[in-house]
Amino acid sequence: MTTPQAESQTVPQYVYGVTRADATIPDDLAGLEDQPVRVVSHDGLAALTSDLPTGRPLGQRADLMAHQRVLQALVEGGTPVLPFRFGAALADADAVRGELLESNTDRLTEVLDGIDGRIAVRVKGTYDQDAVLREVLTEDPEIAELSARLREVPEEAADAVHFDRVRLGEMIVNALHARRERDGERLLSALAPLAQAVVAHDPARDEDVLDASMLVTEAKRAEFEKAVESLSEEHGDRIRLRMVGPLPPYDFVPEG
């Protein structure tokens, strides 16, 4: 069965992304407001579209989820897709064909060539904070000595060692930061050689050790997944390592 072509009529079209014209699209794929997803084709390319909802602004949670659902259905089916950011729309199917596909055929084809046969995944590593804090308190001699000394101070003398407690806190924070950077670099250096491209994201929380998007070829996929599993087992008592994907390859397509 074939995904319906968008008709040439003046109905604003919401655009989810671009794939190849011969790509397999699920027949029952639904987009915003459960509108059927159609394709607008030109010269080997296909834009995935549906009628743009009218009478209200975009941005509801259901809209965002529908946008992601369409793209996720494609990548999970092994279809290369150049994902568009939420909110892309054009005047009608003719505008999609002319302004998007015809005007950018070479560029869109080049981007699709760069992601075809590859999957995008996100790898995240998170500390078990209690386990890592125990490491810091026992493995750093200066911190261990100061911590032990402060534990012996009676409660009535706590004010006298206030600045020592502040110093201990700063030392622990610095040690955790250094450990996080070191562990993150080790994890990344173990996985990066198996990926074609890597985009490292800044940790969002203190316990985040690694947050990286990686583009992996299908030929390396099994080896990459095994490496993630091995690292997870190696660090399982102190770092929770997980891989999410395949995902729409937002981090590996150019903006604009």
From TrEMBL:
Keywords: Gas vesicle. It holds the Pfam family GvpL_GvpF. GO terms for biological process: gas vesicle organization. It comes from the Bacteria. The keyword GTP-binding does not apply. The keyword DNA damage does not apply. It is found in: Gas vesicle. InterPro entries: GvpL/GvpF (IPR009430). GO terms for cellular component: gas vesicle. Belongs to the gas vesicle GvpF/GvpL family. This is Gas vesicle protein. The lineage of its organism: Bacteria, Bacillati, Actinomycetota, Actinomycetes, Streptosporangiales.
